[in-house]
Design goal:
The chain is built from 2 helices and 2 strands, in the order E-H-E-H. With 66 residues, the protein is mainly α.
Length: 66
């Protein structure tokens, strides 16, 4: 028997915008994805702690199980 393919998603340049939230929701809804590759540009918080918190809260549900 052949092993199942490993499906993974790639996202980049996620901030805290509605578009970023929509992307995260799309990834969360796709239960076939086993891994998410995020090559960079996290949150665009630029040393603003509240934006880091917002970004973390937005991504935590997916990041904690993928």
């Amino acid at each position: 028997s052949h092993p199942s393919p490993l499906l993974f998603g790639v996202v980049a340049d996620l901030g805290t915008s509605n578009d970023s939230a929509s992307t995260i929701q799309h990834v969360a809804d796709n239960t076939d994805l086993r891994m998410i590759l995020h090559p960079g540009d996290l949150s665009y918080a630029d040393c603003r702690g509240q934006l880091w918190d917002t970004y973390g809260e937005m991504t935590q549900p997916v990041a904690s199980n993928r």
